[in-house]
Amino acid sequence: MEIKMKATRDGFGEGLVELGQKRDDIVVLSADLTESTRAAWFKEKFPERFFSMGVSEQDMMGTAAGLALSGKVAFACTFGAFAAGRAWDQVRVSLAYMKTNVKIVGTHGGISVGEDGPTHQANEELALMRILPNMTVIIPCDAMEAKKATIASASYPGPVYLRLGRSGVPGVTKEEDVFQIGKASLLKDGKDVAIIACGVEVYEALCASESLKKENISARVINLHTIKPIDKDIIIKAAKETGAIVTAEEHTIMGGMGSAVSEVVSQNLPVPMEFVGVKDRFGESGDPKELFKLFGLTADDIVKAAKKAIARKNA
Amino acid sequence: MAKQSDINELKKIAQEIRIEIVKMLNCAGSGHTGGSLSMVELLVGLYFYKFKCDPVKPLCNTRDIFVLSKGHGCPALYAVLARMNFFSKEELCTLRKVGTRLQGHPQRGLPGVEISSGSLGQGLSIANGFALGARLNKDSKRIYCLMGDGELDEGQVWEAALTSAHYKLDNVCGIIDYNKFQIDGRVEDIKGLEPLKAKWQAFGWEVFEIDGHDVKEVTEAYDKAEKIKGKPSMVLAHTVKGKGVSFFENKNKYHGTAPNKEELEKAIKELEMEK
Q1: Which of A60, A122, B121, B132 has the most other CB atoms within 10 Å of its CB?
Q2: CA separation (Å) from A197 to A207, A238, A261, A275, B102?
Q3: The CATH number of domain A185-314, selected from 1.20.810.10, 3.20.110.10, 3.40.50.920, 3.10.20.310
Q4: Residue A6 phi, psi (nearest 5)
């Protein structure tokens, strides 16, 4: 069966247009990456509610804050690397501290950006966003979920960071699946190990669980689409029932989703944990598929990590 | 235009605000004396003459918006807001103390304070956002944004300056408290800004260069700015850091130092004499 590939940024673009049609209070800003972030789809339909900010991410965040304080829900769109990197202090003070109703859209997350290379591959921004009080951090796993996350974030009070990808990813969720901010989804039950993944790694995790099944290893797969607020219950339950956890994210393993999970696990029910993610290094140019192998983010890498976690549990 | 009797009243209010500022800073034991005193007439000329607001309904839709971008000057704003009854004058003495609404740098939530600020350079962008929002809401409110001169070193200010002009935000009125000092010393020594008027003009702004301690000039500038159409206005106000107290004036030590008891008594004596 051929799997349909679609980028999460496309799901965002569709969600934004739907929001624009339903709600007059939605405004969109873009820092000269209007086509790339899919903000263009909104701009085409609602030009009077779209604001081109030029290559000025800091100014964009502040302007979005002012619009939000005027009663609008402002979507501020750029690449994740620039949203969090270039404009972090503006995000900290003008958005998080003031709890302004701004939805930061960071596309081109992770190494799946591919050929553009390290400056454009956001591997650190989840950590930067997660540590801010009042911030909500969401990473949809496929285009369908991205659309739902976009629509849900518009009704969710306060600043939200939405992490999206450039490249097409396999569809994992279905139209009828419920998406709720802060509530992770159990995609596959299992008792030997729990794989907690986000973004494109959710698909890799599902593939890994299939491989493990062939070796009679029962792996639970959880889609932790919201890193903050984190779904503690599902994590603690997984620790209790499987006794071994692997986290998988397209992001540095320092401070991101894996760290967030380990904060919950270590404080509630410590079990062996393994981390699949980028290992304290910058990205590089190349074909995304090859990069995933090079950076150890494939289903095979998750399988290895799962076996290691199980071995530690049984040691 | 403000009448002469109004001007005299505004002058008196300015001196009384200064007394509140030095008292408040002494009470707190720390804070920014120089930059609070330099911006007094700029605030008084706005709030007690031009500004539309309702202390009983601080978030009413018809209000004008004041964005304090140079957040460290908040003692001056707090004194003005208290005098206008946004909150009680007694609360001024809680400045910088645990549990206070009067944070060391302003925090949204205190009635009359529109934005949290303190990290410099962010206010003008937010003011632009308010201005675009007002335009979408078909709302005639005016947006004022007070910046410091040292603050203009921040790149974001100039990003925002482009935005205001690009979107022809004639509902935006910037104000620069040009007191010629920043923490490290004289602006011209640390990072020169001149020719400052020409810079803003080149960025597409209408600039009104005034004596920022002359209440008549201040109120006239706000009146004129309101009539400018198709572009934003900037009130470039020459001021004196520490204005009103001889031993604070142009003494950069008092950028971030509060008056002690002895200094407070002397300062109040001087300010009372000028009333």
Answers
A1: A60
A2: 12, 13, 10, 10, 43
A3: 3.40.50.920
A4: -155, 135
pTM across the whole model = 0.97
CATH fold, domain A5-170, is Rossmann fold (3.40.50)
Domain that holds residue B108: 4-274
Q: Does the beta carbon of A66 lie under 8 angstroms from any beta carbon of chain B?
A: yes
Distance (Å) of CA A239 to CA A203, A249, A268, B233: 21, 18, 9, 60
B126 with A65: Cβ contact below 8 A: yes
Q: Using CB atoms, pick whichever of A72, A94, A97 lies closest to residue B126.
A: A94
CB proximity A153 to B under 8 Å: no
Within the 131-150 window of chain B, which residues sit less than 8 Å (CB to CB) from chain A? 131-134, 136-137
Is A18 a catalytic site residue?
no
Tell me whether domains A5-170 and A185-314 share a fold: yes
pLDDT one-digit tens code per residue, B171-198: 999 999 999 999 999 999 999 999 999 9
Single out the residue of A40, A54, A58, A49 nearest to residue A20, CA to CA.
A49
Work out the pLDDT band at B32, boundaries 50, 70, 90.
Answer: very high
Question: Helices B40-47 and B215-227: crossing angle, nearest 10°?
Answer: 60
Q: What is the CA radius of gyration of chain B?
A: 17
Contacts B133 to A, Cβ<8 Å? 66-67, 69-72
Q: Give me the pLDDT at residue A242, please.
A: 98
Mean pLDDT is lowest, of A41-45, A58-62, B1-5, B36-40, for: B1-5
Residue ranges, chain A, pLDDT below 50: none
Closest by Cα among A225, A209, A229 to A141: A225
Domain ranges of chain A: 5-170, 185-314
Asked if A136 and A181 touch (Cβ cutoff 8 Å), the reply is: yes
Q: Residue A53's closest chain B neighbor by CA?
A: B163
Task: Tell me the CATH number at B167.
Answer: 3.40.50.970
Distance CA A133, CA A228 (A): 10
- CA quadruple B180, B184, B189, B190: dihedral positive or negative? negative
pLDDT single digits (tens) A215-230: 999 999 999 999 999 9
Please tell me what DSSP assigns to residue B235.
E
pLDDT digits (tens, 9 = 90+) for A18-60: 999 999 999 999 999 999 999 999 999 999 999 999 999 999 9
Q: Which of B65, B70, B122 to mutate to test the interface with A (most CBs of A within 10 A)?
A: B122
Q: Which of A56, A74, A98 sits opposite B116 (nearest CB)?
A: A98
**Catalytic site residue from A57, A145, A201, A249:** A57
